[in-house]
């Protein structure tokens, strides 16, 4: 199978698996779906294996993330998300990946690509604004989401966007101290950055957002 066809097939599978139901919240519908899916990253942003690992709650490595700057070209970076099963899932390119600057990470597109895009809009002393969007390949609808980051840390909630406004909460990012047996070999807790999300949320995009936030804050501060 040609590489472009493989990427198209993988993108279609991901769209089928992770399409979000975007439902506006109103006074008659206050039921919030459970944030039942969990993804975990270590707070340490070094790359001893050449990438950062994203774990399931049982310690299984579900995704690998790497973000690297192009030497000699200010602001140019590449971000790659891969999985042990599928290999590289997609790559994002940025030409303005600089602290304190508006930054856009855009997917390197190919036939059948959902054209993922992650935007960071810094506001100086105020909290940064994070948004991401992609095209649902089944409906051709453009879906958008916003990360409402806390002012003093990188925790916060993620909402689907409906007509320019926040709809349902689909995920939450938390700083945690965990003692999962697979995570530590002693009694000391390990600092993690943890994603909790609904079962029908766009989980591939959410884990990418999690890793981008973690590395951005590590490099640039809150």
Automatic annotation (TrEMBL):
Q: Which UniProt keywords apply?
A: Signal
Signal sequence: where?
1-24
Tell me the classification of the organism that encodes this protein.
Answer: Eukaryota, Fungi, Dikarya, Basidiomycota, Pucciniomycotina
State the superkingdom.
Answer: Eukaryota
Protein name, please?
Answer: Uncharacterized protein
